[in-house]
Automatic annotation (TrEMBL):
Pfam families: CbiM, PDGLE. It is a multi-pass membrane protein. It comes from the Bacteria. InterPro entries: CbiM/NikMN (IPR002751), PDGLE_dom (IPR025937). Keywords: Cell membrane, Membrane, Transmembrane, Transmembrane helix, Transport. The chain crosses the membrane at residues 7-30, 50-70, 82-108, 120-139, 151-174, 194-214, 256-275, 318-342. Gene3D superfamilies: 1.10.1760.20. Residues 254-344 form the PDGLE domain. This is PDGLE domain-containing protein. It comes from Streptomyces violascens. It is found in: Cell membrane. Its main location: membrane.
C-alpha cells in the first residue's frame, strides 16, 4: 500500500507530513517508557528490548518483500503495524514501521518521498493504533492464555488492513489528484484489502505464536496476560510462586535475535524471489480506477537499489536477493540505533542531563 508521488496533492501531503511528524514525536516519548526497563516493558528491560525492536523492523522489511496472491492479478504484502505493536509496544511499533518506510523510500524507490507523511499516517500510525486497540480489547475478554493472545493478534491484524484502506480513501477524498468517484475507490480499496488482511493476520498470528512459544517474556502484548502456573497443595490448586525478576533478566536474547535475523535474511535474500509479481492492492485499484494518472517519477528512481534490485548485476535472482540482504542489514542497523538512542535517553539520570535536556 505504498503511496507514490502524485497520488495526493501537495497541501494534503504536507498536512499528513505534519501529522506523521507529530505522531513520531509522541511515539519517541512513548517508546522511552516501553524501552525504559522491566517496569515499563519486558521483564528483561530496555537493554533487551532495543535490539529486538530493531530486529522487528528488519523482519517487517523482509516480509514486506513477500507479496502473496489474493485474487486474480492482485497481490498483497504485510503492513506490519499489528505485528510490531504486539511484539514491542504500540509507540515502538509506530517507529518500527516508520523506519521501514523511510528505508524503502530512500534506498529502494518504494513509496514517494513527498508521500512519506501519507504512508506513515496510513501504514504506520493507522495499522498500529487500530490493531493494538483491538488487541487490548480482545485480551481483556478472552481467557488469560497464550492461545488467546495469538487469536487476538489474528483478529487485530485482520482488521487493521481494511482500516488502513479506509484512511487512504479519506486522504484521497481530501487531496486526490484525479477525478475518480470516491465511492468506487472506497469499494475497491476495502474489498481487496479485506483479502490482504487475511494474509496479514496469518503472518502476524504465526509470528506472535512462535515467539510466545519460546519466549513469552519478550512479547509486549503478553505482559501479565498468561494465567499463573497452578500447583496442587493439600488437594487444592494454588498459584505457583512467580519467577524472581533477577532470574528473568538474566535470560539472554542472543538466540532469539540470531534466529530472527537469519530468518529475515533468508526471506529477503532467497524466498523473495518467489513472491508474486502481480501488483499489490493499491497498485491494482489505482490502475483500474485511474488514480495513477498523475503519478510522478520517484526522486530516487536511479538509486542502485531501486525496485529491490542491485543495478549492474545481470542475474535477476542474485540482484534481488542481494538488495534484500542489504535492506535487512541497513534496517536493523538504523532501527537498532534509533531504539538504543531512545533507551539511553530514558535511562540517563536527570542529574547527568544538560539543562536543555531536563
Amino acid at each position: 500500500m505504498h503511496v507514490p508521488d502524485g497520488f495526493i496533492n501537495a497541501p494534503v501531503s504536507a498536512v499528513t507530513g505534519v501529522v506523521a511528524a507529530g505522531a513520531v514525536a509522541v511515539s519517541l516519548r512513548g517508546a522511552r517508557r516501553e524501552l525504559g526497563g522491566p517496569s515499563h516493558a519486558f521483564s528483561g528491560g530496555g537493554e533487551k528490548t532495543a535490539p529486538l525492536a530493531g530486529l522487528v523492523a528488519a523482519f517487517i522489511f523482509a516480509v514486506q518483500m513477500l507479496n502473496f496472491p489474493v485474487a486474480a492479478g492482485t497481490s498483497g504484502h504485510l503492513l506490519g503495524g499489528a505485528l510490531a505493536a504486539i511484539l514491542v509496544g504500540p509507540y515502538t511499533g509506530v517507529l518500527c514501521v516508520s523506519v521501514v518506510l523511510l528505508m524503502q523510500g530512500i534506498l529502494f524507490a518504494d513509496g514517494g518521498l513527498t508521500a512519506l507523511g501519507v504512508n506513515i499516517t496510513d501504514m504506520a500510525i493507522t495499522t498500529t493504533v487500530v490493531a493494538y486497540a483491538l488487541f487490548r480489547g480482545l485480551v481483556k475478554v478472552l481467557p488469560r492464555t497464550r492461545r488467546s493472545i495469538t487469536a487476538a493478534s489474528f483478529v487485530a491484524a485482520l482488521l487493521s488492513v481494511p482500516a488502513a484502506a479506509l484512511v487512504f480513501t479519506a486522504i484521497y477524498a481530501l487531496g486526490g489528484t484525479t477525478d475518480v468517484p470516491i465511492t468506487k475507490v472506497l469499494t475497491a480499496m476495502v474489498g481487496v484489502h479485506i483479502l490482504i488482511g487475511i494474509g496479514e493476520a496469518v503472518i502476524t498470528a504465526l509470528t506472535v505464536g512462535a515467539v510466545i512459544a519460546v519466549r513469552p517474556d519478550l512479547v509486549y502484548g503478553a505482559r501479565g496476560l498468561t494465567a499463573p502456573l497452578k500447583l496442587r497443595v493439600g488437594g487444592e490448586l494454588v498459584d505457583a510462586p512467580a519467577a524472581a525478576p533477577a532470574a528473568a533478566r538474566t535470560r539472554s536474547t542472543k538466540k532469539v535475535w540470531g534466529i530472527g535475523i537469519v530468518t529475515a535474511l533468508v526471506l529477503a535474500g532467497f524466498v523473495s524471489f518467489y513472491a508474486s509479481a502481480s501488483p499489490d492492492g493499491l497498485e491494482k485499484v489505482a490502475h483500474d480506477k485511474g488514480i495513477d494518472a498523475k503519478t510522478k517519477q520517484h526522486a530516487t528512481s536511479d538509486s542502485p537499489l531501486a525496485d529491490y534490485s542491485v543495478k549492474d548485476i545481470g542475474d535477476a535472482r542474485l540482484a534481488g536477493g542481494l538488495a534484500g540482504v542489504i535492506g535487512v542489514g541497513v534496517t536493523v542497523v538504523v532501527g537498532s540505533g534509533v531504539f538504543w538512542a531512545v533507551r539511553r535517553r530514558r535511562a540517563e539520570p536527570a542529574s547527568e542531563r544538560t539543562p536543555e535536556a531536563v
